[in-house]
Amino acid sequence: MLLNFTISHLWHLLQSLYEGFIFYYAAAIMSLYVILAIFSALAIRQFKRRNSFVDYKSILNSPHAPGISVIAPAYNEGATIIDNVHSLLTLNYAKFEVIIVNDGSTDDTLEKLIREFELVPVKFDYQERIVTRPVKRVFRSTNPAFSKLIVVDKENGKSKADASNAGINVASYPLFLCTDVDCIIEKNTLLHMVKPFLEEEIRVIAVGATIRIANSCEVDQGVLLRVIPPKKLLPRFQELEYIRSFLLGRMAWSQMNGLIIVSGGLGLFDKEIVIKAGGYDHTSFAEDMEMITRMRRYMEENKLPYRVRYIPNSQCWTEGPSTLKVFSKQRTRWARGLIQCLTVHRRVIGNPKYGIMGLLTYPYMVLFEWLAPFLEITGLIFYLVSGLSGTINWTHALTLLLYVYSFSVAITTIAVLWDQLTFKYYDSVWQVIGLCAMAIVEPILYHPLNVFFSIRGNYFYFTGKKLAWGNMSRQGFARRQMAQPQPSEASS
Question: Where are the membrane-spanning stretches (predicted)?
């Protein structure tokens, strides 16, 4: 009886401590979201004020505007490659080149490119400043209309990072834009993204921009005609997630100069710093976060002032996974990439040598990005055990649940409304209302999936289970204009 009393007493003590910890953890993460939202609001207001009188034609016609190499890796992209390359070639900028890296495609990607753009192999002084899988051939067009196009044919490197590095080796301009060949990019993207490089007094090493979901948008030959929220449930949830994370999260970190993620779908980089930092890590599952971290570490370790900037304009539309199978692979890879990056750069965490990245950004990623799914799972188990044993404080538990749920719905709704009031991408109020309504069920239907796949990604990492870049078929723009295309899981 004494033993039973001791165990019961210990359980009640642990229950009280855990409930207190969960409450304060939830309060901390919600407080941080509010702080990030405030910083984001300040950053967006500042951006809108600075850009209200900008004449982008002056950038277009300026002899001082730097040249930009647009790099787009391609692996089995035969369904959409032609329209998307045409779209990239029509970007509005004075001095740029488009480098398509065929990463050992096994379909007709290369054949279609050769035929459509009248390509022939050329002698090219290829300097391997970043080590990659062997480059076999470099193609240029015999048609002057496609003089900006370079196609690199290389052996498959089993990662987008290896293909991107080959593109960097070929690039002739001081800045390069890394994107996915299946993304839809705004015509004036280069003008908008090069602006921070021109106006900042301190050296800018990277610029990111908001990415949105293209599913259900009206698209014709690689050109976005009309923005429409995704009709299918899974991509619709992703649209909510993208708006919230890009608009509230990354803008805030940019304002604090603590940004460590510039999406692989669209980012403009200082080529010199990228090469000195070693380029993309082809072994990483979070190559975008990992490279920005190494670029920042290089600048901090050499005591060089720098900025990593973000602009809130939606400059790129990517195709979100519309099936649970592809979505699970994407999110498992993201989660594995996060813990991999945190492990590789563990010296950064809490280290004042690395400035705000070491003292704030990386601790935030550990405590509130990596740790959160584990706490949610253990919290669920804890409350199930407490409920079965009859020791749960239902008033406290339900209050905490309502507290967290209400905040989640509110912050997502605010992000959607703020986005629409500021940028007006949707042309119908019902589209906005429909997205806001999704915020009510997102914590119940969508968030648990992310938690599960996050745990799965960590399991894959710690057990050494392999993940590949992967490939999937998609319907393609050309076969169904004015409809929604399907993504490559490698693009997100």
Answer: 22-44, 362-385, 397-417, 429-449
Helix (H) or strand (E) holding 412: helix 394-423
DSSP state of 195: H
Of 227, 379, 374, 199, whose CA–CA distance to 315 is shortest? 227
C-alpha–C-alpha distance, residues 272 and 245, integer Å: 29
Q: Do 300 and 355 meet the contact criterion of CB atoms below 8 Å apart?
A: yes
Encoded tokens for 486: 């399907």
CA separation for the pair 184, 73 (Å, rounded)? 14
Closest CA to 120 of 145, 102, 141, 105: 141
Nearest alpha carbon to residue 250 among 287, 294, 210: 210
Residue 45 CB neighbours (<10 A): 11
For residue 129, the 8-state DSSP code is: S
How far is Cα 383 from Cα 19, in angstroms, rounded to an integer?
10
pTM, two decimals, is 0.89
SS (H, E, C) 379-402: HHHHHHHHHHHCCCCHHHHHHHHH
Fold designation for 35-53+183-361: Spore Coat Polysaccharide Biosynthesis Protein SpsA; Chain A (3.90.550)
Structural contact between residues 215 and 230, judged by C-beta atoms closer than 8 angstroms: yes
Domain boundaries of the chain, sorted by first residue:
35-53+183-361
Scored b (16 or more CB within 10 A) or e, 469-482 reads: beeeebebbbeeee
Radius of gyration of the chain (CA): 24
Nearest to 64 by CA among 148, 181, 163, 174: 174
Tens-of-pLDDT digits for all 492 residues of the chain?
A: 545 557 667 767 777 777 778 888 888 999 999 999 999 989 988 888 887 777 777 777 777 889 999 999 999 988 889 988 998 999 999 999 999 999 999 999 999 999 999 999 999 888 899 999 999 999 999 999 999 999 999 999 888 999 999 999 999 999 999 998 888 898 999 999 999 998 888 999 999 999 999 888 888 777 888 899 999 999 999 999 999 998 888 999 999 999 999 988 899 999 999 999 999 998 898 988 999 999 999 999 999 999 999 999 888 998 889 899 999 999 999 999 999 999 999 999 999 999 999 999 999 999 999 999 999 998 888 888 877 777 777 787 788 888 889 999 999 999 999 898 888 889 889 999 999 999 999 999 999 999 999 999 999 999 988 766 555 445 443 334 433 334 343 333
Q: Roughly how many angstroms between the first and final C-alpha of the chain, as a whole number?
A: 58
Residue 84 and residue 181 in contact, taking contact as beta carbons nearer than 8 Å = yes
For residue 96, give both structure tokens: 């740029």
Sequence length of the chain is: 492
